Structures
1.
Amino acid sequence: MGKPPPDRRSAPAGALAYTDRAALVLGDQLTLDNPALARVDRGRDTVVMIEAVGEATHVWSHKARIALFLSAMRHFAEELRAAGYRVRYLELDAPGPDDFGARLGACLDDLGAGSLTVCEPGEWRMLAAIQDVCRSHGVTLAVLPDPHFLIGTDEFRRWAGDRRTLRMEFFYRHMRQRTGILMQEQGPAGDRWNFDTDNRAGFGARGPAAVPEPPRYAPDLLTRTVIALVEHRFPDHPGRLDSFAWPVTRTQALQALARFVAERLAAFGRHQDAMWQSEPFLWHSLLSSSLNLKLLDPREVIDAALQAWRELRLPLASVEGFIRQILGWREFVRGVYWHWMPELAEQNHFAHERALPRWYWTGETHMNCMGAAIGQTLEHGYAHHIQRLMVTGNFALLAGIEPRQVCDWYLAVYVDAVEWAELPNTAGMALFADGGRFTSKPYAASGAYIKRMSNYCRGCRYRPEVRTGPDACPMTVLYWSFLDQHTSKFARNPRTTLMAQNVARLDQSERTVIRRTAERIGANLETV
């Protein structure tokens, strides 16, 4: 178990009886159900919202990520004003410091605020910063539990107890039983907790059938203003904005949810792990950014899927697979984040030290799988979970890239990236940097897996089935070298015993050549 989080206890009720009170709404708390708003007296209190350059440069954020947060924040501020709230909104170009904490302190001083109320942030760093500001400015702080999630952090800790390792599957079953979702009198719907084995099909040589176009939201005047601001203030940041079409309001997010359920949920399950170079979105929901900004509530997303299952008789494997991502994995990684921070951010189980190649920011690599996944990411600020886990994350693991650099990259380049979701997924699942505290094995694979699940290997200069020589796929070489390095560990783990047995079948001379080839690739990562 990690260190206790910063103190979240609310101040005594009497401590809030100041003439000037403020409520802080952060950029990923854009819902009228924000509990901080429930304490606001609209006649005298002020809602504070802050844009800060430092939040875009803390990691080298994708232009689309910056634009999404700023546009959604500005739209929500308009919604608050229309609902009668008094809003103090500090735009990016407002005079003053670039740092969020300094801006907040100056704003509280200017308001003469004696107290500040905020819903618990989604990032350890942000919670600590707010507490430091309030402490140094003599402001009473109340941090309220976040009702957006189906399980609170305290309840998660009670579920986790003193276990040294946690597993999402057991947590997911706990949540199913606790909520009654996809449960029948005799047990789980369909007599199975998990339909994951039904949802791993590739497309074959012909590729996917016709994929419905996901909804796109043409930028309105406010969003176009934000896009121009981002292009002006952050011209050297990665990514593009010419295809920006993400939902930035609750109305748009609800429309996106309805479109997904009606047009793509039925076919989502079977091919949810597959990839295809000409299809960046496939049947995925594209709702994670709206959920993480809190434009959508997870309960209404789950309810929409359940209603479609009942009324439209959608395949249970698709519905369960989608719900598992929200009720299971999303709630689980948030609990894991707060349970094991801050040391989770510093874990490095394999002692990997290599630098992140520069082409992670450009996509300019000879590996077509990496170029395609990164190119799509730079264009849209999006890649689905297998592209993140088994392509960009898999390579980073096999190549021995230092986990902190990889985590910063993931936090920077995806529009849905908030640290409570990104850090456990990257450090724990993709990189196994925590040594398996909540995953049972490293998610490592060779080029053969990518060939089976995508069309990325077509036309690539490397051959995925080759592990030595000039045509050897770097993913394949590094995979076999990784197994060779850690054979004794993998042999002791039931989930990786087969991997250890496979590398043990190679003769020593081939293992030596693979190791040397991998060392050469590792020393020249910038040119692969």
2.
Amino acid sequence: MLTPTSNSTPPPTTEHQDPGAEAKDQKVRYRTLSPKWRSTMAALTASSILLAINQIFNLGFFVDYVMLDSRYMYLITGVMLCMVFITFPGSKHSPTHVPWYDLAIMMAIGLIFSYFAFNAERIVLEAWEYASPTIGIWLALVTWVIVLEAGRRAGGWPVFIIVAIFSLYPTFADRLPGVIAALSIPIQEVAIFHVMGEESLFGIPMRVFAQLVFGFLIFGVTLQFTGGGPFFINLSFALLGHLRGGPAKVSIFSSGLMGSMSGGPISNVLTTGPLSIPAMRRIGFTKEYAAGIEACASTGGVFMPPIMGATAFVMASFLNISYLTVAVAAIVPSVLYFFGLYMQIDAYAAREKLPGLPREELPKVGQVFKDGWYFIAVFAALIWMLVYLQREAVAPFYATGLLLVINQLTKHRLSFEKLMELVASIGKLLAELAGILAAIGLIIGGLAVTGIAGTIANDLVYLAGDNVLVLLFMGALTSFILGIGMTVTAAYIFLAIVLVPALTSAGLDPLASHMFVMYWGMLSFITPPVALAAFTAASVANASPMRVGFEAMRLGTIIYFVPFFFVFNPALLLQGSAWENLQAISTAIVGVALVAAALQSYLVGVGHLGRGVKGAIIRALIGLSGLTLALPAGGLFGFSQILLLGLALVFFGVAMGLRQSGKPVTPP
């Protein structure tokens, strides 16, 4: 039986991933801790979880002591910032030990955040964000520097540079060109606004993280440690492994599910890629194509409901709507993306005559469900609590508790050592996100205190000349550039502040605008020259990174168009009437299938579309037919459905007529 942990499936070639490569990468990024520091991290992780549970469930520490939200934010942020300086080395000189200066920073964090937590009521009642005592000003300045360094360690130099510029922006805004100029504010006033206000360090990113996302992160890590990853991969092989191109279709299904849990394209590639890529290579996929499929599938998991990483919750807070509304809106675009990927794989496998894996080597569906039925049950319980009870904050905690209890009654129960590994992984994830989101919050503060965000939006609309299409292209390019080197959530938050107001000012739907920048901010993971997810998959497949990047870009072509489609008409986000939604979805599905056929030069039911100049023309016409069908009727441009259907039929008819003319087109 083929399982993620077995060696029963032989590698397809002698080329394989260095088993120490991933471990080496992790050592560079994360500090290797001694037993003493591992225990310290476990204690800090447990403290942060207990603080979150107490606040979210309103337990009052079981003595009816209700803690102010601001006090809670100071305490939990201080704990997690300490975790950042334990987890991430400041330089290559301290990969295995916590140096004295990190210890000093942690002591400073403990003292400063304890002071702020103790004075939380005074900070609110006396408005320290505008007029703080002298000691508060000095402590705020030190906190500012610490948060910048935490952002650098957790998110890298791109995060540090962007955050430093925008958080300091109010201090030099009067010396900038007129378009982005503002009144200058003394640095001490900026510091207290950043640290004691509700729109900067403790703005939307950290508030959503500490009050909503926290539980989902714990659930995602717990799901993987209790065997959720192997279960979903085995289930994918059992259901799809025997189909033509089966391992590639398995990659789509398993990576989509795993990506929804982890919210990170790179970690997703490293989780599912080592199994799916060799299996794809075994049946005849090239290593570049196999790696490209894995990169696209892993990236697409980020916007696959129900969890969608942290971004969906941040988006819901920006829009002041429920998380469920965001998750429902994300269903159709994510389905279109994965459907387009699936159809391309199917067309490629049919064209190249690539079989599935032998059934006798695949796990049985019944056995897979018997071993892991409770993962489905827990997922169902989570969705029930989210959709029916609408308890977004507490649902993941209940789901995690249920999962751990059931898991301990099975053969997969966690040992004490495994439980400590689970806690360590939760700590690493919390530290990473806390460091990044705390820093990103300073960007919001820098723009909020000057009021420049609205000015930038107006200037963008002015530069676009009131042309919505030009504004969208500008937005797509800006989103893509800012998505380079930043996490999806960090890039989205920045764009939601700077770019989305310009899109909504131009008359676009707010939810569609937020989705648009999220999608385009994510596309850098599969688009050269950066393409971090593609390059990670290339390392697993031992293939050329740039070739994998371009392959991933071609395979993910659909996602470059989908954001424009749902901005043109939010019916693809299920924001229209039932008839409008059904009409937009049905034509989009057929259109995506035709675009996939054009990209792979093979149309199911028709065959190969040809080579050379004639083949290129046929493929272009089929692609135009698909794009015309996928473009929603009505909405921004008001195209009628009859017009779009007519154009699509004309393009398709000409393509088929051209294919039938002259000598028959045959596969190579």
3.
Amino acid sequence: MKDGFYKVGSASPLLKVGDPFYNIGKMYELFKLASSFGVNILVYPELSITGYTCQDLFLQSTLISRAMDALKDFAMRTKGSDMLTFIGFPLSYNGKLYNTAAAIQDGRILSFTAKKNLPVYGEFQEDRWFTPSFDGVVYLDSSIPFGNRILHKYEDVTVAAEICEDLWVSSPPSNEHAKHGANIIVNLSASDEVIGKEEYRRNLVALQSAKLVAGYVYADAAEGESTTDMVFTGSNIIAENGTILNESNFSSGSLTISEIDVQRLNQERRRMNTFPSLNDGSYVTVPLYFEKKETVLTRKIAPYPFVPSDDSQRASRCEKILRLQALGLKKRIEHTNAGKLVIGLSGGLDSTLALLVSVKAMDMLSRSRKDVLAITMPCFGTTKRTKSNAEKLADALSVSFEQIDIKKSVLQHFKDMGQSERDYSVTYENAQARERTQVLMDKANQVGGLVIGTGDLSELALGWATYNGDHMSNYAVNASIPKTLVRHIVSYVASLNGPESKVLYDILGTPVSPELIPPKDGKISQVTEDIVGPYELHDFFLYYFVRFAFPPSKIYRLARIAFARTYDDGVIFKWLEVFIRRFFSQQFKRSCLPDGPKVGSVTFSPRGDWRMPSDASVDVFLEDLYIVRKTHDV
């Protein structure tokens, strides 16, 4: 349960139709296997204790009586285990039979949640044997709740059940469960397999988990069920807020396991003020107990959360982002009647992307690309390679191009203020950045244009921008694009094999640098990632710190998994500490950002997504990170 992770499992036992004690034997085998994996919540299929396909045998009191005996026997076997287990069970009550999910923990039957929607179409005839759930809850033996409004709760996790068809209707019971606090929904199902149904069912589970901002654990009947008219294949699915974490098909006699991040779900619900929260007294809450321990993670932790791993998805994402950036800029050009777009083109990745966006916007407006003015401004740290690439890129894209050498202006500035030209301090660097911005702003005035900002999201997170220098522009097209994604977008454009492709590939191979310190032997001497750390790490930290508000200790844990083959623990810890310190100390730059288009879920616009005091204390966040030192040798 550490960091909010609960290990869940869907079990599809091999059954015999109508033989409860044989079935609980097979179910207990999977229970023990799940226990060895540290599963906290285990879900079996619908009516799994008897088999879903008993048909008129459900009218036999012998079967129903034996089913209850078998359920009690199974519950007794779980004594001493804190695993919460849901078993499909036919419950007889007041002369009626109900299709239920029996919840069991530590030798006790905790509750029976009844199925509300009984299918009577196609191959299904459930109302022949079962009665739909009534609204509300009654108690069996004065202590066990039975009905359709039951929650099972322990600290940050609340679990509720629905059964098969309940998910397929227009208003699933899980809608109400989630409104009343459930953040994990379990579904005990017997969904037969027909062509085309698997993908539909998969999408249904994913969508419901997204709508409810919940974990969803779907357990399906498998082999052993009668094949008189249907075939069951154990199509098990585990989803979290729209993402399939794990799934299996033809999984008879096996487990499907993953971990649901309840902390992430709860944070997301807090963030969404439209997510309902009801406490009207209509639900009964059953207390749970879990032994507190660190859940071993098997779910995939992507090292590049901003970048799709699939090639085709990545290409589609890059094209869409380019279009969104260009559409935002197009509107700004139209509104201001801008005659030109003015860009400081350094030969680096960020200014390259800004130029590509500017060209696309002009193309959308059916205007000449010559209305884009790219200006290169060499100074003390400019290398031949980047200077050459800037000119080549401008030529390949058919935009206007100027070179304005700023060395004399900066040296005069140094002289005026008594700054040594050999003092390579922050003043030495920032003077160049601010001079470049002054040139761009004044040039934009001269030609009736807009200065297009080039800085990206990662730089804003770290404050890696000169205040009132490259920090400022008239419209910042890259403001919500992290550095790892900038690289992929430029690479995508290069892959289209246009006239600019060759120079784009060379730009992609150039180290990221502000080029403010003189080069050594003609090569870049100031490599950004040597100073502030690898952008792939910082983008990972940024995503989880801002998007999900994870504590630093949890981010460190996830980063160790995601980058296990790339960085050792000490390196990850070092740069995470740098990230946290810089993120807090540099907020004042984010508090006064120029306009720019939002294209992803993380952005720092002070008018929209991110509002933070510039003088907020970093201490409690560092304290949380330093907890790591007590448990890891870093």
4.
Amino acid sequence: MAEVINMPRLSDTMEEGTVAKWLKNVGDKIEEGDILAEIETDKATMEFESFHEGTLLHIGIAEGDGAPVDTLLAIIGEEGEDISSLLNGANEGSKEPENKVEAPENKSTSDVSEESSKKADSNTAFEIPEGVEIIKMPRLSDTMEEGTVATWLKKVGDEVEEGDILAEIETDKATMEFESFYAGQLLYIGIKEGESAPVDEVLAVIGPAGTDVESVLQSKSTSKTETEEKAEEIATKEAAPAEVKEEKTLESGQRVFVSPLARKIADEKGIDLNAIKGTGDHGRIVKRDVENYVPSADISAPAKDVATKTITDSRVTIPQILPTGEEYSEEVKNSQMRKVIAKRLSESKFTAPHYYLMIEVDMDNAKASREKINNLPDTKVSFNDMVVKACAMALKKHPQVNTSWNGDTTRYNQHIHVGVAVAVDEGLVVPVLKFTDQLSLTQIGTSVKDLAGRAREKKLTPAEMEGSTFTVSNLGMFGILEFTSIINQPNSAILSVGAIIEKPVVKNGQIVVGNTMKISLACDHRTVDGATGAQFLQTLRAYLENPVTMLA
């Protein structure tokens, strides 16, 4: 009897998965324990093995496609077994009955699935011609909601081979190459360079030369286009007589157009419209022209045109010239990275109850130890590397800080992955050092340098920015003495590191010159109590003030 294999839940937070690669084809013999596919979850790409034996009769999710947990993934059974009832049953339970798969005898299941998806994509009776593929904005990371086309590497009319790089797409985490899974001619580009669009927006159309692209696109948006055209037509008709109402005659007899708002502002300010040069269409005077108007400072000009203010006292009247100038601002489009940073930080700040603990650390021994370490050949360690190592060791002693809030449960992470915040041109990224507690100081230094360099070049992969259990943010190199950070969820805490400064300190009852560094810990009060956070900082201070203990 055939067995239905559904999309598995491979992690506790997984809601949907993507088939990264099928390792078996329809018709292959399957043994129990064989790897069926590689499935990308919200955290990693994992191998999925079969718990059944038989023949792979059906693949329900194509490579590269994603689907919710429990969606039909595959069917395994006896060779030649009739599975039409299983396919129909799976689709009757679907929320979208129009996608129901009915496999006629003369068509393969994959052909039926392809036909079904194309029909579901069409809002009209027009059928997309064979060989024509509509390419949509891909989801290149698990958190991506929209993308920006950084560069098109192909232009309309170019021949495209399967595997060719079509474009470079900027996600919320990195700029990634997007390759074509189809061959044909690039017929249409839907999103221009520098423009952003949500995931699944039409990115391009590939197909045979001579294809009627307009019909393909109109099959999805005909009604919308007609509505827009009607709206534009009405707007044009209504706008035409409006300019007649804005008409004004100058003293010279020449006619000029002025917007009602501009006339109102000019009347309120007592400005003569004859003196203003319009910058609107056909020389029309608009609001900005009146607001930016600077009266002539000529001595012969009437008093009302001179930008002066009179200060009077009992003995003398002094004219004071007021500053004048043009108000100017510029709208800059937010990058995809900046928008996602704003969203994530807002979610963290307004959902996690933050509190902050701050201490000052004596860094005299750390400075001396670092100098000795860096005198060794081929060795380079920074103070930040020492902080990261100390955090990893402190987390082992205080597992409550290495947790995540999950609503009804708290996840205690048995592994320690420290994220290191790195400033890039468009915002902030957090590459992750996996199993940080198992790395030496020099390994941490090498890894951080490599990850930070590739982060600034946008060469990090999504996997290198996922999975942190704790985060370190260091602004000491910018001379910042102390600051607080917003927690990088789903972490429970983030450490903010300030600059090391030389100042008078009291040691053994004497005032001497010392080196100190201020650090602050932001904690999620749902998972980390104040006493727990304080104990973590005490342990962290002990490691930093006695670096030799980190080398044991």
